[in-house]
Design a protein that fits this description.
The complex is a heterodimer of chains A (270) and B (458).
Chain A lengths: L7 H11 L4 E7 L5 H13 L4 E5 L10 H12 L6 H12 L3 E5 L2 H7 L1 H10 L4 E3 L9 H10 L2 E3 L1 E2 L5 H10 L4 E4 L14 H11 L5 E4 L5 H8 L4 E4 L1 H23 L4 H5 L1
Parallel strand pairs in A: 1-2, 1-9, 2-3, 3-4, 4-5, 6-7, 7-8, 8-9
Helix pairs in contact in A: 2-4, 2-11, 5-6, 6-7
Chain B lengths: L30 E2 L2 E2 L5 H18 L2 H15 L5 E3 L11 E6 L9 H14 L4 E6 L3 H13 L2 E7 H6 L1 H9 L3 E5 L6 H15 L3 E3 L10 H24 L5 E6 L3 H7 L9 E9 L10 H4 L1 E5 L2 E5 L24 H8 L3 E7 H15 L5 H18 L9 E6 L7 H7 L28 H10 L1
Parallel strand pairs in B: 4-14, 5-6, 5-8, 6-7, 9-10, 9-14, 10-13
Antiparallel strand pairs in B: 1-2, 3-4, 11-12
Helix pairs in contact in B: 2-3, 3-4, 3-8, 4-6, 8-9, 12-13
Classes of the chains: A alpha/beta (270), B alpha/beta (458).
């Protein structure tokens, strides 16, 4: 991984590491249910134990998302969400908290705005970088340039199906952390976390990744505890979106608090 | 980046690009100019690599080629005919119109060419299950057919709205042993069916092949789907030479994702004298915004794994497409078409619902062939270019045009009946409802109903 400048995501993960625990990464969509409420929910994430916050851009064709996130992002769009609002959400959260705020987005909205323009505005809003579920390093030429220019992290995904060559290439292309997909599938809560996740993390570490966070299917403190034992960070999405849907901002705060209870690495190893 | 396409400006179509240029045939991907590629989740990259690798090996394997040829001949019924449409020609300025009869293939459209090829590849990869998306149901039916033939499980994703519109095709797929999953996300049409098929694929990729139905999507699909359809153009090219002794002046096909079109076009790409036309779905008119003319009015973007012309709003959100033809109701287009549009080798134009349905009616009545509404867009286009190419010509019949009749219209009878005002208030074909039917037993015959229908149409 290249580290020519201070990566906000890496710093957040390292702070957690210094406390002897894994980092908690919480996902919520921008503009759900409204732009203002998504800012409040993001702040609640940060204040209750999330070290990094992942703000999703609602998109018309979210092929990596399961029903809960699809329903939320569809609602956000029908409530009038515009892509440029994501910068307001990022700025709103970074103004109120110390958490690193990344944007998770499918690639077409970025391409439509212009990769450079998008990166410039994200950096201006205080964003840490981008997580790109449908952009592999092979197609990321423009994003490499823009992320270097504006000092943004580029978080690519690795999967159980990634070959050693691709894993190696993706680890080298990433900055901030590497997102390890725990299972072959889309976002959504699951009763257990696949054991393949540990293998993917080990392979990414072996390929030279200093920080690897695990996502997909993580929904409760037990999952968090299990993953925190071997990964540098744990990513929770669908469960938080469901909490926001059912119980509003307070429920997000409560769930984040519960999840962060599972973070202690020492506890997991005991 | 690329500028707006030159669709509609016929002079650009000429052979400027071809003068001394490299061959346009056999483009292997992943890129076609700046289009194509693999804008896909990492989870699926290994599967795409496996498909590509299996495909490349199969192409070089005489056994595979022989197996495919055998199925094409003895199962699909290839070669399909090239039929001269002599009475239809009068409606196209007198140009000689030849129909490439993909409607005569088993399952009633060109779709079978691709599914047989891909289903054979699925077997070679050791997959036991295929999934597919479908709009009108033609690709779903073809996939269910190939799966039954080769002993594969088959799940077809179909927009709930399309399921309702094409209930008969849902039943056909079920009869063939496939499971049809109605998709209730988004616009509940073809693009959403593809989204759900991709979600299924990413979850079940170990034993499942995604049998994508058009020459779009991530590499290797555009080049691979084209390869399986190239037989259309190869046959048509030798058939037209045999029947007329020369190459055609123009060829025409309809474009949704563009698989039947690229299959026909491929054999003629390097024939500089042959003008090539693709007809997109203009829906209610491109000026209304309710259309599916991605090349004519879209701008480059990524959807479903490829960079190509795309109907999108200022935020990059996909715009829902509209067409009377479910098979053309797709907001993007195969990446090779975007490239061929930019370099001016193929001219892309929009044909409205009305123009397509007029051509549908003309073909029914002049040739005794009920075309698919998709193919009717190509027929409407042929009427236009027939007039253009024969203008001022002493012998209009010197002009020859091949139209890809990509499918038969049986599936569209209900839509056509509604369009031509053949239905009563309750949606029944006029004259067939209980109120006009006599109880069982000996009755006198009446032809009143049929007369009504004719009056309505004339």
């Amino acid at each position: 991984m290249t580290e020519e400048f201070a990566s906000k995501s890496a710093a957040a993960i390292d702070r957690a590491k210094a406390e002897g625990r894994a980092a908690l990464v919480g996902y919520l969509p921008a503009g759900y249910p409204t732009v203002q409420e998504s800012i409040e929910a993001g702040i609640a994430l940060a204040r209750n134990g999330a070290d990094l916050i992942e703000i999703g851009i609602p998109y018309s064709d979210p092929v990596m998302d399961g029903p809960v996130i699809q329903a939320a992002t569809t609602e956000a769009i029908s409530n009038g969400f515009r892509v440029a609002n994501v910068f307001d959400v990022v700025a709103g959260i970074t103004a109120a908290t110390d958490s690193a705020v990344l944007v998770m987005t499918y690639w077409n909205p970025v391409m439509r705005m212009g990769v450079d323009e998008f990166a410039r505005r994200l950096a201006e809003a205080g964003g840490a970088g981008l997580i790109t579920p449908d952009l592999v390093p092979d197609e990321a030429h423009e994003w490499f340039e823009a992320s270097d220019r504006y000092g943004l992290d580029r978080v690519f995904l690795v999967a159980p199906s990634s070959t050693p060559e691709r894993l190696d290439m993706t680890v080298k292309a990433s900055r901030g952390f590497v997102y390890a997909v725990s299972i072959m599938g889309v976002t959504g809560t699951r009763t257990s976390v696949s054991s393949t996740a540990e293998d993917v993390v080990a392979r990414a570490h072996a390929a030279g990744a200093e920080r690897v966070c695990v996502g997909l299917g993580v929904s409760n403190p037990d999952h968090v505890r299990e993953i925190a034992a071997y990964a540098d960070g744990v990513i929770v999405g669908t469960a938080l979106v469901a909490a926001l849907r059912d119980g509003g901002v307070d429920a997000v705060g409560q769930l984040t608090k519960n999840l962060s209870a599972g973070l202690g690495r020492a506890a997991a190893e005991a | 980046m690329v500028d707006a396409p030159t669709a509609g400006s016929e002079e650009n179509v000429a052979d400027a690009f071809l003068q001394g240029g490299p061959s346009l045939r056999n483009a292997s991907g992943p890129y076609f100019g700046s289009y194509g590629g693999r804008w896909m989740p990492e989870s699926l990259i290994a599967a795409l690599d496996e498909v590509q690798d299996t495909f490349e090996k199969a192409k070089a394997d005489p056994d595979f080629i022989a197996q495919l040829k055998d199925l094409n001949k003895n199962y699909s019924g290839r070669p399909s005919l090239l039929t001269e449409a002599k009475r239809f020609s009068e409606h196209a300025g007198g140009a000689r119109i030849f129909l490439k009869r993909e409607d005569l293939n088993h399952t009633g459209s060109h779709k079978i060419n691709n599914v047989l090829g891909q289903a054979l590849l699925a077997k070679r990869m050791g997959k036991t299950r295929v999934i597919a998306e479908t709009g009108a149901g033609q690709h779903g039916v073809a996939s269910a057919t190939a799966a039954a033939l080769l002993g594969l499980d088959c799940v077809v994703y179909m927009g709930a709205e399309d399921c309702r519109r094409q209930a008969l095709n849902v039943a056909r797929m079920q009869l063939l042993g496939a499971t049809v999953v109605p998709v209730t996300n988004g616009s509940q049409t073809l693009k959403d069916a593809i989204n759900d098929a991709l979600r299924d694929w990413v979850s079940n990729v170990e034993h499942t092949h995604y049998l994508l139905g058009t020459a779009a999507g991530a590499h290797p699909f555009p080049a691979m789907v084209r390869y399986f359809h190239e037989v259309i153009g190869e046959e048509a090219r030798s058939q037209i030479l045999e029947q007329t002794g020369k190459l055609p002046d123009a060829i025409a096909a309809c474009i949704g994702g563009g698989s039947n079109a690229i299959g026909l076009f491929h054999a003629f790409l390097d024939d500089a004298s042959v003008k090539i036309y693709g007809f997109e779905a203009g829906g209610e008119g491109v000026e209304t915004g309710r259309h599916a003319a991605a090349i004519s009015l879209g701008r480059p973007g990524v959807l479903h794994g490829a960079r190509s012309y795309l109907m999108q709003d200022e935020d990059g959100q996909t715009i829902e497409s509209h067409s009377i033809s479910a098979g053309l109701d797709y907001p993007s287009v195969g990446p090779e078409h975007s490239y061929l549009a930019d370099i001016g080798r193929v001219t892309y134009e929009a044909v409205t619902d009305t123009e397509a349905m007029d051509a549908f009616s003309v073909l029914c009545r002049t040739e005794g062939i009920i075309p698919a509404i998709e193919s009717s867009h190509a027929l409407a286009g042929a009427i236009k270019i027939g007039h253009r190419l024969t203008e001022g010509k002493e012998n209009p019949s010197d002009v020859t045009v091949i139209v890809n009749l990509s499918g038969r219209g049986d599936k569209d009878v209900e839509t056509a009946a509604a369009w031509f005002n053949m239905l009563d208030e309750e949606g029944h074909v006029k004259g067939t409802t209980l109120s006009t039917r006599k109880p069982k037993g000996p009755t006198e015959r009446t032809n009143e109903a049929a007369v009504d229908v004719n009056e309505d149409q004339n």
